[in-house]
Write a structure and sequence with these properties.
single chain, mainly beta, 7-stranded antiparallel beta sheet, globular
Length: 225
């Protein structure tokens, strides 16, 4: 396992998340199960042209260290890049998440229908304060005689909606563990945050209490603090 900053960081005015959540949550094999992941529960929400899209839960996802599947996961967070600025370019800003094939089809169909009626379609992804499943990072023991523990390297202390008017990237990437757990990969590019938001990031991969809070600017001059 690499340092926490490999997965989550707030550096050089950019908040980034980069985790192989999908791969690491589909198996109980230690090779993957002990690796970090970011699973999104049912409060994670998608809207297309202002209308909510129903997200189908995965048949089986395995949270940190679990041998029993969690069946309340609607998405896995794979990548997030947000330039922390009052106003500036959004060309690098994006969010990538994996969903079931049924959710992918629902998002694709909603976008196709909306795009047929207007020139510009708004897509939204909302992360609530309780969207991320807890205990998804294994903090290594400080010594060989103590046990490690599962905890959090990232929590959202404020809800935030990431909005874009760019056409999303929608890709089917395979069937997962079974046909009932088929996978879609969605990327919203050129996103803006609805508001400035605080995140709590853990700075150490051995101490789950070594946390600091960062305020991420929305890159949106119309957003409030």
């Amino acid at each position: 396992m690499e340092q926490v900053s490999r997965y989550v960081s707030n550096r050089n005015n950019a908040f980034t998340v980069n985790v192989n959540s999908l791969q690491n949550s589909q198996s109980t094999s230690p090779e993957f199960a002990m690796e970090p992941k970011m699973l999104l529960g049912s409060s994670f929400a998608i809207k297309i042209a202002g209308q909510p899209v129903t997200l189908t839960k995965f048949a089986a996802m395995y949270p940190g260290g679990a041998t029993e599947a969690n069946t309340d996961i609607v998405a896995t967070l794979e990548n997030l890049y947000v330039a922390s600025a009052t106003l500036g370019t959004t060309s690098c800003n994006s969010i990538t998440f994996a969903v079931t094939k049924a959710s992918l089809d629902a998002i694709a169909n909603a976008y196709s229908q909306a795009a047929g009626n207007r020139e510009m379609v708004t897509v939204e992804a909302t992360i609530a304060t309780d969207s991320l499943v807890t205990g998804q990072f294994y903090f290594q023991p400080a010594t060989g005689t103590t046990a490690g523990n599962w905890g959090d390297i990232l929590t959202f202390q404020d809800a935030v909606t990431f909005t874009s008017t760019s056409e999303p990237s929608i890709e089917e990437i395979g069937g997962g563990n079974s046909s009932s757990n088929a996978i879609g990969l969605i990327t919203f590019n050129n996103i803006r945050a609805s508001n400035n938001f605080n995140v709590s990031i853990t700075a150490s991969n051995i101490d789950s209490n070594a946390k600091f809070v960062s305020n991420i600017m929305a890159n949106n001059s119309a957003a409030g603090a």
